[in-house]
Design a protein that fits this description.
elongated; about 60 residues; about 45% strand; four-stranded antiparallel β-sheet
Length: about 60
Amino acid sequence: MGNNQPKEVYNIIEGKDGKARWVRIGSAFVNRDGSINALLDVYPRDGKIQIRERRGRGQDSRDED
C-alpha cells in the first residue's frame, strides 16, 4: 500500500437516455493497514459509490471499457 495519493469518489447516475453520468462526490485515502477512509461532500441517493485513482486535470476520470 505504498500509494498515499488521494483517490476520487464518484456516484454514477444512469440517465433516462441510458447514458451514465459520473458525479464526483468526495475523496478517499488508503490507510497503512489497507483500509479506506472516504470523505463525502454529498451522499449518493442510491447508496453506491465508485472509488478511482486520481488523474491529472483534463483527463477523463473513468476508464474506457
